[in-house]
Amino acid sequence: MLSVPFEFVAGLAEEFGAVECFWRESDRSFTGFVAEVWFDSLPREFAVRWARVVGYSVVVRCPSSAPGRFAVSVPCVVPLGSVSLSAVSRGSRVQLSELSLEELFALAEEVGSRY
Predict the structure, then answer these.
(1) Alpha helices in 1-100 (DSSP H)
(2) Can you tell me the distance from the alpha carbon of 102 to that of 49, in angstroms, rounded to the nearest whole number?
(3) Is 103 within 8 Å of 23 (Cβ atoms)?
(4) pTM score
(5) Which among 22, 69, 78, 93 has the fewest CB atoms less than 10 Å away?
(6) Taking a C-beta distance cutoff of 8 angstroms, is the pair 68, 39 a contact?
(7) What confidence score (pLDDT) does residue 5 get?
(8) pLDDT tens per residue, the chain (115 residues)?
(9) Where are the alpha helices (DSSP H) in 1-115?
(10) CB atoms within 10 A of CB 45
(11) Burial 50-71 (b: 16+ CB within 10 A, else e)
């Protein structure tokens, strides 16, 4: 799995018409943080593009009250900081890769050009 900078998530969210994007702590994310991305309409294209670029899917929720009708939580690394990950548990299949923001955008363009 890729450790994706929040700035990349926010840029991709803006490209797909998100109404709001911010980050928060998460006990369930492998990075310890998630970007909360809000959309007024079902963000199918965002979710598909995200899965193609980083290699894993996201869950789209429809909360009762929010800045938009649909929300997506995306694991990310917070701006201007780093996340200290604890040791991976024995038998875990998680593999982390760190890419620079430029490398991540280049990967997104390369993957996007194939589809």
Answers:
(1) 6-15, 44-54
(2) 17
(3) no
(4) 0.64
(5) 93
(6) yes
(7) 85
(8) 667 888 888 998 999 999 999 888 887 777 778 888 999 998 989 988 888 877 777 878 888 777 778 988 888 887 554 444 455 544 444 444 555 667 667 766 766 655 4
(9) 6-15, 44-54, 101-114
(10) 11
(11) beebbeeebebeeeeeeebebb
- Give the 3-state secondary structure of residue 93: coil
Structure tokens at 12: 């991709």
**Other beta carbons less than 10 A from residue 111's beta carbon:** 15
Burial bucket for residue 30 (CB in 10 Å: 0-12, 13-18, 19+):
middle
Three-state secondary structure call for residue 43: coil
Angstrom CA distances, 27 to 8, 17, 30, 38, 43, stand at 21, 27, 8, 20, 24
Q: How far apart are CA 27 and CA 43, in angstroms?
A: 24
Please report the pLDDT score of residue 97 as a whole number.
Answer: 52
Question: How many helices (H) and strands (E) in the chain?
Answer: 3, 6
Which amino acid is it at 65? S
Q: Rounded distance, CA 69 to CA 26, Å?
A: 21
